[in-house]
């Protein structure tokens, strides 16, 4: 005879058998099973009369006394079918409590809805099918881009981001570059390096990172674009955002391969910093492409020649902001007041918009219709030097801004630049490299 017993009942069988065969005292068994001696005696009597079957619970296989009646279950299912057919179990249970005064557990309702086909659990839901697509026809038609955050130096340096540009048609690594973060300035620097080496592709294919796309709900239908999107628009390069990571699987799979091969290659080469890695990456790219790149369907190169000059590229890959020149010939950008040189030509620009160019290397340029304007800086975040104010010929304009921010400076002893601005990690790294070069020349 087969018996269905729980682990607790199986453990009791061994103990009760030892008591029946006088190998164990009831007192010790009671402490072992954490039961009373009277209950131990009751179990012994059942075992002696019926054997192990006497220790099986009499409720086994019978419905619970706390179960809902079939009529109540059908009543709830009928309400759900009529009003809440597309609701989730938790939400539907809230409405049953609020509007119908029906109290039951969410898990019970979930099981009922699953049995009726109203709800499919996440474990049972079928994964979405992503059908493969053919590669593009030729080189430069579509370039997939992505940033991979990883411990690339295996603890020899801080964790950083590797930005990958890979051609869809050939699988060639077009550009690799390490950076501290995945910022707008980093993508601008890398894209400029790409187009100077290869030319302008037809389109870049990216994810929906905030560098590429404005994700705020109020601007999704507008014509605004990110700084990186604006730079590509001026270069006449399309930017396409993938709806899922599987859509840009070429670069995603390349990231996994690089996280294996590139890390080991850098370990063998003794590379311990971002600067050393960026200088060595062209050698790795050439070897990688020789091994894994494939021939495209068409030998036509879709890259277009770069016609913009170096100075034009500087302005395109800068953060651009429009400001209106005040009557005191001042503008404010990133909590800094810029004092435009007073002259007849600049006086005619009062009330007109002028452009502030924030370059990736940290420098600032102010222009009107492409013509640079001479300016001086008054930083509102720094302590005002009395001697400097006295010597400043434009004392009134400076004091006007100083008075407006006086309370803020007193109540906030330490402040930083605007948090809404794009990351300046790339700027800081570029400035540090420039300082190192100057020290080497000296």
TrEMBL record:
Domain of life: Bacteria
Pfam families, per the entry: HTH_29 (PF13551)
BP term (GO), one: DNA integration
Gene3D superfamilies in the cross-refs: Ribonuclease H-like superfamily/Ribonuclease H
GO molecular function: nucleic acid binding
Domain Integrase catalytic residue range list: 128-313
Annotated SUPFAM superfamilies: Homeodomain-like, Ribonuclease H-like
PANTHER family in alphabetical order: INTEGRASE PROTEIN (PTHR35004:SF7), TRANSPOSASE RV3428C-RELATED (PTHR35004)
NCBIfam families: transpos_ISNCY_2
Protein name per Swiss-Prot or TrEMBL: ISNCY family transposase
